[in-house]
Design brief:
heterodimer; A: 469 residues; alpha/beta; five-stranded mixed sheet; 17 helices; 15 strands; 43% helix; 14% strand; elongated; B: 407 residues; Transcription Regulator spoIIAA; 3 domains; six-stranded parallel sheet; two-stranded antiparallel sheet; 10 strands; 39% helix; globular; binds iron/sulfur cluster
Chain lengths: 469, 407
């Protein structure tokens, strides 16, 4: 057996790549942990890496813990990790699952400490703003992490402050982001970071105002925000004063007699609540126009159109491509078909009210065309409150639902159109009538069926017209 | 500072002070989200506490009111119509620029915006929605936004709010309808429940339909100790809120003495320990399989034991259910052992497949072994009728001298 000691020299900090390569090599040569000396001084004279060993098949949990433990500041970290790998590959395949094993337990604690440090760095970095000559903004921070985590936090700060020009300096390395590229640099100096930022006063004011002196509890504060971090937290400066003033402030609050209140008239609150719904269809329409659709539909809302006080109100599904372009309901192919059918049924469209259950066009782009998409249950409900108010202003004798979406919007639940065709009492306060949507006739490929369907639709409209009279 | 900054600073002090009695400050529950090109903001699932104030509470969000003028007169609230407190009102733009300024310096995870009710509930809610919309649409802000919903506002505004916010919340404030009637005359329990129901329905649909609608769900707050409701009533209310509206969190806030107190309130604040016990009980409700009546049965007369935590109190009253063997006991039973947390239990269950666990193993898996010991059997330990000892409570309760001045 080969009893010589192997020395492995890794880069300073958390050298995950170096450790991984070395571990593969050592396991490949079957070198037991006791024969390895790990250093991380970036020793130039250490043995040069001699090629990679085969990748190691390690359990998933190990893959999570190694990159964390490698960042720990304990000089023994590599030795401990190598011992773990050795045991995992020498008969203890389930070792990671035995969280109570002393080695596993220790590594878990180390990983936890690194995780906590990462978390605290995410939380406690405080940027200060520098004004750039060109008028741009630049932010810089000074932070002192416990472990070698600077690189490991980079992605977090990039994901969060992508559009910002920033740098974080620490004694263990630095990060620089110019809105496009990340540079990982050498350790920085505290003096190189800005010493003040006028805006910081807002933060101190906020910190003071949000503190409740009646609940002062510095123990819990210190447990979560350890004193070692205080020197780089601007708000920490006022903590002693806040604690010192807390008790007298509470005492003063309790001693103050409940003062005579300048009580204002309570009726105002009640009146205000009664007074808030829109007072006219125009006011309601303004709200609809200002609102945003529940998903990326066309942003243009197409409003209802017609006579207030009409005997009959038609509710369709949603505006289509042409309706969206012109901003008026039922003017495209389906609208033209509706016009024809109305005429044959003896109904004058100008004497009716026509609207849609969903006010914005939902579509999928396909080349230059916009393909209609059926609205979902949640999307229909999003618009339902408006439809109800709208009908209250129009106050028709009969509400006709054209198709499944309108039926669902008016009934508050899905109802098959064909089965429920005709008069219905499912539309709450409104006498209702269910029929097909004219666009379903346009989609019908069979000519004979189309003709029959059209005739039935006209018959429906006649019956509806009679009911509304 | 220029004159505008000085004015904003003054408003910030007033409107942060007015918002601080709301405990629900967490930034959790949203899906991971990253800033787009040229923009800022991200969310992590569990949220981040950026600082702690000397009351031990976390600062995660910029928690402010849009205004503390209010038409309503809720007795427990410092902003009620009849209080003489100093008033202020932010513009939408001021809130937006403060939020961005705070966020860019990494002070916060995002904004928690609430408001007193001015003009009408709809008007107020519209302003809140405008802040969120401006942050998202005009500034591409992808950080966390929590909007307090005004239940008296029209339903379409809730629909709009959910498009921009991560979390929506309505405070039920008091555990019983009677309490609400007495202390908040303009509020209506039915309106609150209807709005919570609407939000819940939209959240479920949006999730199914893969749309964005308040992905971090809804939460609420109850004030404890402002009326006569018992802990049992509080927990029953919580259980039904979790059940009916899938709330992510119920926050409990021990009624705190407020400046300009109303004379219908109790003069004395309840012990903070009561709030603490309710949080522990809430935890048992959500993660440990306890029902509200079971937890309440651990105390006396519907009140939780203030000296020991509710899990230990329950175990002491149900000694026949112990000891539990860590190497064979079911998860449900292990979860009921005082001192064993859910995470420790899960580790035990994995580890015991490979090894027989002894006391030393448990000590490494759980920081609460001292309390767990009398209730556990391990490879090398069984509690020798310890569970029958009359002085067990005294041995396990923390010594009374540890009670702090303010507890
Ligand atoms: S509605 Fe009630 S709780 Fe809300 S701010 Fe007004 S007084 Fe306070």
């Amino acid at each position: 057996m080969n009893m010589t000691l192997t020395q492995v020299a890794l880069q300073p900090g958390g050298d995950l790549d170096g450790f991984r390569a070395a571990a593969r090599r050592l396991i490949g040569r079957d070198t037991p942990p006791g024969q390895v000396i790990w250093t991380s001084e970036g020793d130039l004279f250490g043995a040069a890496p001699e090629g990679e060993g085969a990748p190691l098949m390690l359990p998933k949990l190990t893959g999570e813990i190694i990159p964390l433990v490698v960042c720990h500041n304990d000089p023994q970290r590599y030795g401990l990790l190598y011992t773990l790998i050795w045991r995992l590959t020498h008969g203890e395949r389930h070792l990671m699952q035995i969280a109570s094993d002393p080695l596993v337990h220790r590594l878990y604690i180390m990983a936890k400490s690194v995780r906590r440090d990462l978390h605290k760095m995410h939380a406690f970095v405080r940027f200060r703003q520098l004004d750039l000559p060109g008028g741009g903004e630049r932010f810089m921070a000074w932070f002192e992490p416990e472990h070698f985590i600077v690189e490991a936090t980079a992605q977090f700060f990039v994901d969060r402050f992508r559009g910002m020009d920033w740098a974080i300096l620490t004694p263990k390395g630095s990060l620089h982001w110019d809105t496009r590229t990340l540079t990982i640099g050498p350790p920085g100096e505290r003096a190189a970071a800005p010493q003040m930022d006028d805006f910081e006063q807002h933060w101190l004011d906020y910190y003071e105002a949000t503190f409740n002196p009646a609940r002062v509890n510095p123990t819990v504060m210190k447990r979560e925000m350890a004193v070692k971090y205080w020197k780089n937290l601007p708000e920490a400066e006022i903590i002693p004063r806040l604690i010192h003033e807390a008790a007298p402030r509470v005492q003063a609050m309790i001693e103050r007699e409940a003062e005579m209140s300048t009580k204002r008239n309570p009726d105002k609150a009640v009146a205000a609540m009664a007074d808030q719904t829109p007072k006219s269809l125009d006011a309601l329409n303004r709200l609809i126009l200002e609102s945003v659709p529940p998903a990326p539909f066309s942003p243009r809302a197409v409003l209802g159109e017609g006579l207030i006080g009409a005997r009959i109100a038609f509710v369709g599904e949603q505006p289509g491509d042409q309706e969206d372009i012109e901003g008026r309901p039922f003017i495209g192919p389906a609208g033209q078909l509706l016009d024809r059918a109305l005429e044959e049924a003896g109904i004058v469209r100008a004497e009716t009210y026509v609207t849609n259950a969903v006010k914005n066009f939902k579509f999928k782009p396909s080349g230059k065309r916009r393909i209609h998409q059926t609205p979902t249950t949640g999307e229909i409900k999003h618009y339902r409150w408006w439809l109800e108010r709208e009908l209250e202003f129009v106050h028709p004798h009969l509400v006709v639902a054209l198709g499944a979406t309108a039926t669902q919007a008016l009934a508050g639940k899905a109802m098959p159109v064909m089965k429920n065709r005709g008069a219905t009492s499912a539309f709450g306060a409104w006498p209702g009538f269910i029929t097909i949507h004219p666009s379903s006739l346009l989609r019908q490929p069979d000519e004979a069926a189309k003709t029959a369907g059209y005739k039935a639709f006209v018959d429906d409209l006649k019956r509806a017209g009679a009911l509304a009279a | 500072m220029n004159i505008m900054d000085i004015l904003v600073a003054k408003k910030l002090r007033i409107l942060a002070d007015a918002a601080k009695y709301d405990a629900s400050c967490s930034s959790s529950g949203s899906k991971g989200r990253k800033a787009g090109e040229g923009a800022i903001g991200s969310t992590t699932g569990s949220g981040i506490c950026h600082s702690y104030t000397p009351d031990g509470r976390c600062i995660s969000l910029l928690k402010i009111l849009l205004t503390n003028y209010c038409l309503f007169d809720c007795a427990y609230c410092i902003n009620r119509r009849s209080s003489n407190v100093q008033r202020a009102r932010f513009t939408v733009e001021e809130v937006v620029s403060l939020t961005l300024g705070f966020y860019k310096r990494n002070y916060i995870e995002g904004l928690f915006l609430s408001s007193g009710i001015i003009k009408t509930p709809d008007h107020t809610m519209e302003e809140l929605v405008r802040v969120a919309r401006s942050l998202r649409r005009d500034h591409g802000f992808a950080g966390y936004i929590h909007l307090k919903t005004i239940p008296e506002a029209s339903p379409w505004l809730i629909e709009q709010a959910g498009l921009w916010a991560d979390r929506l919340s309505i405070n039920v404030e008091l555990p019983t309808v009677l309490g609400l009637k007495a202390l908040a005359p303009e509020k209506d329990g039915g309106t609150i429940a209807a709005a919570m129901g609407q939000m819940n329905e939209r959240m479920i649909e949006a999730k199914e339909e893969k749309r964005r609608f308040a992905p971090a769900g809804q939460s609420t707050q109850m004030i404890v100790g402002a009326d006569a409701a018992t802990d049992e009533m509080v927990l029953n209310t919580s259980a039904s809120l979790y059940g009916n509206f899938r709330l992510r969190r119920v926050y409990y806030s021990a009624f705190s003495p407020i400046p300009e107190a109303s004379s219908v309130l109790p003069v004395k604040a309840p012990p903070l320990r009561r709030e603490n016990r309710l949080y522990q009980a809430d935890w048992l409700l959500r993660y440990y399989g306890f029902s509200a009546p079971e937890i309440a049965s651990s105390g006396e007369g519907g009140m939780l034991d203030l000296d020991i935590d509710p899990k230990l109190a329950w175990a002491l009253k149900n000694r026949d259910r112990f000891p539990v063997d860590v190497n064979t006991g079911e998860r449900e039973l292990l979860l009921r052992v005082p001192g064993l947390g859910a995470r420790a239990v899960d580790k035990i269950i994995v580890a015991r497949r490979h090894t027989a666990l002894g006391l030393d193993d448990i000590r490494r898996l759980s920081p609460g072994l001292k309390r767990a010991r009398p209730f556990l059997i391990t490879r090398d330990h069984s509690p020798a009728r310890l569970t029958d000892r009359l002085d067990l409570r005294e041995r396990l309760a923390p010594p009374p001298t540890q009670l702090g001045l303010f507890e």
